[in-house]
Specification:
Length: about 750
């Protein structure tokens, strides 16, 4: 018996150990929804949608395997372990497959299915192992794959007319392959050279539900076990067994079945209410349910040793002895909005379908997470922190506005019963699409679809609402600039509103409507997001790229129109990101713009928008998807948090907010060893500093400029040569040379 403690790979160690080095990535995925378990030696492998975490029962350590350190993507669906090759085969909902070596945990992609041209879903539903052959159940049929040669052996479309019949589960017993499908159970001889030919398969007849959806199938010593999935009512799911050609109901029935597997000599079954192990004689060996566990929503169960039982769960990860085990992180991967402020990241996770409970999360600077699931409100979709009150607010699509002081639970829900928040026209729910706190502690919000969509709650808990003088109240975004002007987007015109610092007096209010047009015509159909850069210009995202209002201080005087930025790409002049639906914009310490899009990932553009510096997509980065929902920046470290509907990641940028005091200047790495070939970073300096690097005798080596509060030196002199071994002086000053500092750095060649 092998005995390994699984250690995380060198790549992960580097990412964690040097997490603040610009150019590195981090992930903050949720692992609460465990879909499947497998055990190897004293390790429990727990598969979740965004990766696998490994719990070592001896050391009690938790390790993670994600897209950040080797997996192909997110959307994991299943896995199986091959003893003969000591490796896992991992399946995904887009048809991707990975081989994960054990114990090195190095992943290798098998991309044939994902790249295959199909008219339907390529989802991998289940994998079964027979020696070194993997049998793969997909939405389009059944495949066999050699784990040793890492090549596909066969592909079977389970129909005579070529139409796709989804295979939900597979098993192999005594050389016969069984496939559970949406049209019953089919079998074939695994060694048959013509297994790809559906005519060599046989349908099992004279069994209960022989033509219905069979969701799970497993085998043990000549007995086939299968679960019928009642599509209309999960409480009527049922389990049967087939032995010597005779089918009968399993001794004990379970509702809402989530898994049916055979491990060694145990029959493992799980459902919403229970996870159980049975012997082949149908004797109950172990049960995890309301009698001995405080949780529900079970997904799998494995046994280690003689009496250690681990249970998978959809909401609390891995359960052992009535205790939840999982990596720290948010409660959900469906990130809708984020805000980084005061060394804390505020997150909400929801959507617009009105079925999900509201989820709030708070990440501290030490990576501790605190979260709550608010079952009294639906779909948290926007969030803001009110520094005057030290409270957070999040808007919901269904139940108004939620406010709290403690991250683990909320204080109050404001809706149509206890505030002036209105019910959406023709609907029975209160929608707060966006929320923003001003410098005085007033909380402004957009009450979508109502006659007075702009609402404010003062810190004295007085409420006021305002009409925006338009026929279509489809506004979804609010941004408050440094003057206190409220920029309101989402509609076919850009609205700017100012209460003149007299919230309770509407007589002096100012309001202007700005058409989405420039001197060449219509810019876009509607705005999507708004922010202010370090020069005070207003950047506006639309469904067709970026626009800028360059003189916001005069917006109520001359109503200056907005303009687009021209950019040259491959010799052609066009407008900045004009083909993109912009979802969010954030400004870093170098006044550069991080732009999220609906379909093309994240762009970093220069201060004036004329140069594209970076474009991260799910193909060239750890981004889980190209659809970005929100971006927020830690200006002290340059960490750019990127929210998506499939998880939260971050990228350490090379720009921070400048520090006039320069009390915490950091140079890293220092010293620079002979083996180091990367950049040297100087952080915590005055904004846009000028850095002169000299040798110890005062000879100029290089002059560089900072991006906000961060400067980068490549370790080379004026002529492009790597500098020699020695001590070098780093002279830091602002543009006026009134603020200065000198640091030393040791270079070793």
């Amino acid at each position: 018996m092998r005995k390994y403690v699984v250690f995380i790979s060198l790549l992960i160690w580097n990412t964690i150990g040097f997490a603040q080095v610009p150019g590195t990535w981090n992930e903050y995925f949720s692992f609460r929804n465990v879909q499947q378990l497998e055990s190897v030696d004293d390790n429990v492998f727990a598969l979740s949608g965004n990766g696998i975490f490994i719990y070592n029962t001896s050391s009690q350590e938790i390790q993670k395997i994600t897209k950040l350190n080797g997996l192909s993507t997110v959307g994991l669906t299943c896995m199986a372990f091959c003893d003969s090759t000591s490796s896992f085969l991992i399946g995904y909902n887009d048809g991707a497959l990975d081989i994960l070596d054990y114990p090195s945990l190095k992943a290798k992609p098998i991309s044939t299915i994902a790249n295959k041209s199909l008219y339907g879903s390529k989802r991998i539903n289940a994998i079964a192992m027979k020696n070194d052959t993997a049998v793969i159940a997909t939405e389009f049929g059944v495949l066999t794959f050699s784990m040793r040669s890492q090549k596909f052996i066969s592909t079977t479309i389970l129909s005579n007319d070529g139409s796709y019949v989804p295979a939900k589960s597979v098993t192999v017993d005594r050389g016969t392959l069984y496939a559970a499908t949406t049209k019953g159970i089919f079998s074939a001889n695994l060694s048959n050279a013509n297994i790809s030919d559906f005519s060599s398969w046989t349908k099992l007849k004279n069994i209960p539900y022989e033509n219905d959806t069979i969701s799970h199938i497993a085998a043990l010593n000549g007995t086939i076990y299968y679960a019928h999935k009642n599509i209309a009512d999960a409480s009527k799911d049922s389990v049967f067994k087939i032995h010597d050609g005779k089918a009968e109901a399993f001794k004990t029935q379970m509702d809402d079945i989530t898994a049916l597997r055979v491990r060694k000599t145990d029959i493992c079954m799980s459902s919403y209410y229970s996870a159980r192990l049975y012997s082949q004689e149908e004797k109950l060996l172990y049960a995890c349910d309301t009698s001995n566990c405080r949780y529900k929503n079970y997904t799998d169960i494995v046994k280690l040793g003689s009496n250690d039982y681990f249970v998978g769960n959809k909401t609390v990860g891995l359960i052992y002895n009535n205790t939840s085990i999982m990596p720290v992180g948010p409660n959900s991967n469906h990130i809708t909005d984020i805000q980084y402020v005061n060394d804390r990241l505020y997150t909400v996770c929801g959507n617009l379908n009105l079925w999900e409970n509201a989820v709030f999360g708070l990440k501290l600077s030490n990576n501790d997470w605190y979260s709550h699931d608010n079952w009294q409100a639906n779909n948290s979709i926007c969030v803001t922190y009110n520094s005057i009150e030290d409270k957070y607010y999040y808007g919901t699509c269904g139940n108004g506005l939620v406010v709290g002081t403690n991250s683990w639970w909320f204080d109050t829900i404001y809706n149509s019963k206890n505030s002036i928040i209105n019910i959406q026209n023709s609907e029975s729910y209160e929608v707060i699409f966006d929320v923003e706190a001003d410098k005085k502690g007033n909380v402004w919000m957009i009450n979508f679809g109502t006659s007075k969509p702009l609402i404010v709650k003062t810190k004295e808990n007085k409420w006021y609402s305002y009409s925006l003088s338009t026929n279509k109240n489809l506004y979804k975004k609010i941004f408050i600039d440094k003057r206190g002007y409220k920029w309101i987007g989402g509609g076919e015109k850009l609205i700017v509103f100012y209460d003149n610092a007299t919230i309770d007096d509407a007589s002096d209010d100012l309001l202007v409507q700005i058409p989405l047009q420039d001197n060449e015509g219509t810019i876009a159909a509607h705005t999507t997001c708004i922010t202010e850069d370090l020069d005070g210009e207003i950047w506006i995202g639309t469904n067709q790229g970026i626009a800028v209002h360059s003189a916001p201080s005069r917006v109520f005087k001359d109503r200056q129109t907005i303009s687009r930025i021209k950019i040259e790409i491959d010799g052609e002049v066009g407008y900045l990101l004009s083909s993109e639906n912009i979802t969010c914009i954030a400004v870093d310490g170098g006044n550069r713009k991080w732009i999220g899009t609906e379909n093309s990932g994240v762009f970093l553009i220069s201060e004036n928008g004329t140069e594209q510096l970076l474009n991260f997509t799910k193909t060239n980065s750890p981004l889980p998807t190209n659809t970005i929902t929100s971006i927020s920046i830690n200006h002290k470290t340059g960490e750019v948090f990127i929210g998506t509907g499939e998880g939260l990641v971050s990228y350490y940028g090379d720009a921070t907010i400048g520090d006039v005091e320069m009390n915490n200047v950091k140079i890293f790495p220092n010293p620079i060893r002979e083996s180091y070939e990367g950049d040297i970073f100087i952080q915590g300096i005055v904004a846009d500093a000028i850095i002169k690097i000299t040798d110890i005798s005062g000879n100029l080596v290089r002059t560089i400029s900072a991006n906000g509060g961060t400067a980068i030196w490549d370790g080379r002199n004026l002529y492009g040569d790597r500098v020699q071994t020695g001590v070098y002086l780093i002279y830091i000053s602002d543009e006026t040379a009134k603020i200065t500092m000198v640091k030393k750095i040791l270079f070793i060649n």
